[in-house]
Every structure is written in structure tokens, then in C-alpha cells.
Amino acid sequence: MPFADLQEADAFLAAHPDVHAIELFIIDPCGVPRGKLLRREELRAVYQSGRPLPSSILGLTIRGEDVDATGLVWEVADADCWAFPLPGSLQLQSWRAQPTAQLQVSMHPEQGLPASVADPRHVLARQIERLQADGYQPVMAAELEFYLLDRERDAEGRPQPARQSNGLRPQAPQVYGVLELEQLAPFLDDLYAACAAQGLPARTAISEYAPGQVEITLEHRADALQAMDEAVRYKRLVRGVAHKHGYQACFMAKPFGELAGSGLHLHVSLADESGNNLFASEEATGTPLLRQAIGGLLETLEDGLAVFCPNANSFRRFQANSYAPLAKSWGVNNRTVSLRVPGGPAASRHIEHRICGADANPYLAAALLLAGIHHGLRARLDPGAPIEGNGYAQAREVLPTDWLTALRTLERSEWAREALGADFHRVFLAIKQEEYRQFMGEVGEQDWRWYLGHA
Predict the structure, then answer these.
(1) Quick one: fold of 6-116?
(2) Which parts of the chain span the membrane according to its record (predicted)?
């Protein structure tokens, strides 16, 4: 895994003499950025010899609590593990009140042990290398939906959509509404400016299918690892810019029961060594290779569901007629299926993977997506006929809609253990099983509302 050269740090420091704080972060298995705030004088040393981080930093629940069963806490004495900078990740955080930079790091494969086995970026890098060894170059892009919420709760203590620049809260979906985008212009202008400053390829924005819900697409990248690096940095940026404007950016899969969920749609194709799209075809269903890839994704979908949908809330998104998937299905130019082949010119033929909630870790989701594709290519799997028309009404193999079933399937899956790596598979399950125990042990408002006077 290539790390950044010291010249990058020297050039940045020379260009930005007013920057005195650098946010150093690594992405943990839950997709949460964790790290430290460094001073300017510490930056060069990170490039020269890495930065020690505790092994437990990659063995935490989404609430930031140690999970001893990961083997990354007391068993290894919470040892220091060395992380190094990723090329191109040293960028300004233009939304901060004081000039501040950010730097993404990843565990060194050897010096980062024992924590390096739990670094999700390594999991994706391995899958990319496996495809490349067979002559395939994955091309990917991420499409993330999110809600803009007010930092103030409503009268009942619940989250609510943020006020727009006209002072009003959106009440209706107004999907594709241009007026809604206009009312968010101050936020969107800052967001696009921040993306440009960091080199993130933010493209089309739309008002999504719920009040206060927005989607912005990121450009396809010939380097799938770069595409997912950009996806995790984009999420960090959106949260920062939203905070600057008095909002909270919410990437929960289903923050409101009665409104649309938020997804992470992953777009993927395979190129040859010359950059030619191996899925390209005048046929809407693509090449035989594309269909084999879909066959592999369908066959492995349930095994990876706990990664694509990693939290209890993730499964609330699976509802019919909600623009979220419900079944193991594929189709052409069809938003009612899980795996969609978008329309468009032959050269752009690709797969849109619609399973993940916006709460999924992009590195892990992309890793299992690519592993599923690779499985389909090697086994030459046939996905069957594509769904035509309403996929919700034709659902044959409905996806599990509960967290525990997905976790148990992941635990039993030899395919997932091999795709993630045995050590990461163990760590991820330990984290999510602890989260499940805590989640089910918490008594809250719904329990009281349902059972207090009736059970």
C-alpha cells in the first residue's frame, strides 16, 4: 500500500503558513473517522515515521466503546500501532473557523499490527488486487443520500428538517424540486467550494424523495480505492459544512419511519488494461461478463448483508414502493430492483448496487461488492432474466429484514470470511454482536408506548 512522501507535507506547509492544526483521522470498521488533532510542528514526523495510534481504535463500537472480543484491547495491551499518511489526503477544511487541515492515515501492513488486520481500507485493497491479477480494473463511483436536520429538536424531542433560507421547514417531498435546491444555495455553494478545495469530484445535486433530503453524486474513478477514499472524505466534508450552517447532516439509513430512507448507491464496471469498459454493449443487459458479475452479486448478497446494512436502523429502510430494494433482483433501467443496469450509451454500461444504506462503510461495502463480482466471473454464473416492471410486486427472494439474521448469516459464511479476511471477519462480528446486545438491552420510548399500560 503506497503512503505519501514527505515532499507533500513540505509543499503544504509552505503554501499554508496560517494552518496550525491538522485533524489526523483513520476510518474504523463502523465507518467512523477517529484520530487526533495535531499541531503544525508534528506534521512532518507523521510523514517521516508514521503516527502511533492505539490498537483499540479499530475495535470500537459505533458509540466509541472498546470491544474486548475483537482481540485489540487488553489481549494486546492496547499496543501502539503505526499509521501512515495517504497520498493526496492532506487538505484544507475550508469550513473551519480557524485555518485547519485534515490528513487521512491507514495502518502500515506490518508496523500497524495488530490493528492493521482491522483496517477496512486494507480489505478493499486486497479485493482490487485480486481482480487486477485476473486482468480486471474496477471502475467505481459512490452516490450518497443524506438529510439536512436542524440542530434543535421539535417539541417532542425528535429530529426535524432544517429551515431553508426562506425561514421555512420543508413539509413535502418535492422530489427533483429546483426551488428546494435554490433555498439550500448557501449550503450547497459552500459544499461545492469545499469539495473543489479538496479535489473531490462532486457533481449533480438533487432534492430527494423526502423533506430536507439531498443527494449529490461523485464522479466515476478508474481507481476504485480512490473512489471510496473520496466517498469517506466527502461524508466528513458534508458534516463539517452542515455544522457551519447550523445544520446536522444525517447519514442514517432510515431517520424517519414515514419518510424515504437514505442509500449509498455504488456504481461499478470493469475495464481492461487499456481502460476499455468490459461491460460495454449495445445490448441494454450488457455483455456476458456483466451478467456473470450480477450473478455473483445475487448469489453472495445475503452473505454480505450485515456489511451492506451494518446497523439495526439499516433494516428499517427495506420497504416496498420506497425506492429502496426489497429482494434479490436485477433489471435494466429499473429502480425497483437491488441491482440496476442504468440506461445510457453503450460505453457507459455498468451496475448500480442499491442495497447499502448511507450508514454503510464505503470501503467494506465496495470490498464485498467486488468480491461478489469476482465470484460470479470465476464461476460464470447466470443471473436469470431481468425483472421488467414493478420489482416490488414480483419479489421472489425477499431480503432478510432484521439485523440478527444478517449477522448470523455473515458469521456462517465461508465466502465472507475469505473475502473480508479471517481476522477482519472476526473483529467486525465482535463489534456488531456487541452493538446488537447493547441495542436490544436498551429500553426506550417505543417500549413504553407499546407495552407500558397493556402488557
Answers:
(1) Ubiquitin-like (UB roll) (3.10.20)
(2) none
